[in-house]
Amino acid sequence: MTYAFEARVIEHIETGRLIRVLEDWCAPYPGPYLYYASRRQMRPALRAFIDFFRYSG
């Protein structure tokens, strides 16, 4: 039994390799959010992190 993001396992659920259990106990999760001050100059590492997660979904 595991708790995973649906987007990561939806293919396995659709093909029947995984099944949902305790579905009534799992609240919807809209996704992670990141707050950063946009008025400051952003370090390249933070910009790369944000870009990676923004466009990998």
Short description:
Residues 9-54 form the LysR substrate-binding domain. Pfam families: LysR_substrate. With 57 residues, this protein is mostly helical.
What does it look like?
With 57 residues, this protein is an all-alpha fold. The chain has one domain (6-55). 39% of the residues lie in helices and 0% in strands. It is built from 2 helices and no strands. The chain is elongated and about 45 Å long. Residues 9-54 form the LysR substrate-binding domain. Pfam families: LysR_substrate (PF03466). It comes from Rhizobium herbae. Keywords: DNA-binding. InterPro entries: LysR_subst-bd.
Structural class call reads mainly alpha
Multimer state? single chain
Instruction: Report the uncertain regions.
Output: none
Count of DSSP E strands? 0
Biggest sheet overview: none
Radius of gyration equals 16 Å
Can you tell me the number of structural domains? 1
**What would the principal axes of the Cα set say about the shape?**
elongated
Summarize the amount of helix as a percent range.
Answer: 25-40%
Count of helical stretches: 2
InterPro entries: LysR_subst-bd
Domain LysR substrate-binding: 9-54
Pfam family, one: LysR_substrate
Keywords: DNA-binding
Q: Can you tag this structure with a few keywords?
A:
single chain; mainly alpha; 57 residues
SSE blueprint:
Layout: H1 6-15, H2 44-55
